[in-house]
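Now for today's protein.

===
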Amino acid sequence: GHLWYAKQLVADGILDSPALVQLCMGVPWGAPDDLNTFMAMVNNVPDDWTFSAFALGRNQMAYVAAAVLAGGNVRVGLEDNLWLGKGELAQNWQLVERAVTIVENMGAKVIGPEEVRQKLGLQKRAPK
């Protein structure tokens, strides 16, 4: 539903295209946490859009790999998953470090903030 709505917002001129969308897997009453649903969503992202993908909970790191394999970008963090392993609370940097290891071991590249801004056409603003 969210992907469909994003497309509608672009069609209505509310959002500019190309858009950035995040495919969130494993949300109750949202997108289930399965690869068939994930790939259906990926296949419905317009070709000129940028997407990232993530999953809530224990499959967060599996979707790091899935996002890379599907040609997308990665999102990780404590807002989606509190655990590094069974019974082991994570710190955000640990989740990021683990995701970087997965991405790099798959032969993909992790880019920094400046490259992200360039890729997405964002402008850095001075803090107020």
Remarks:
- Strands lie at 20-25, 50-55, 73-74, 83-85, 88-89.
- The two ends are 36 Å apart (CA to CA).
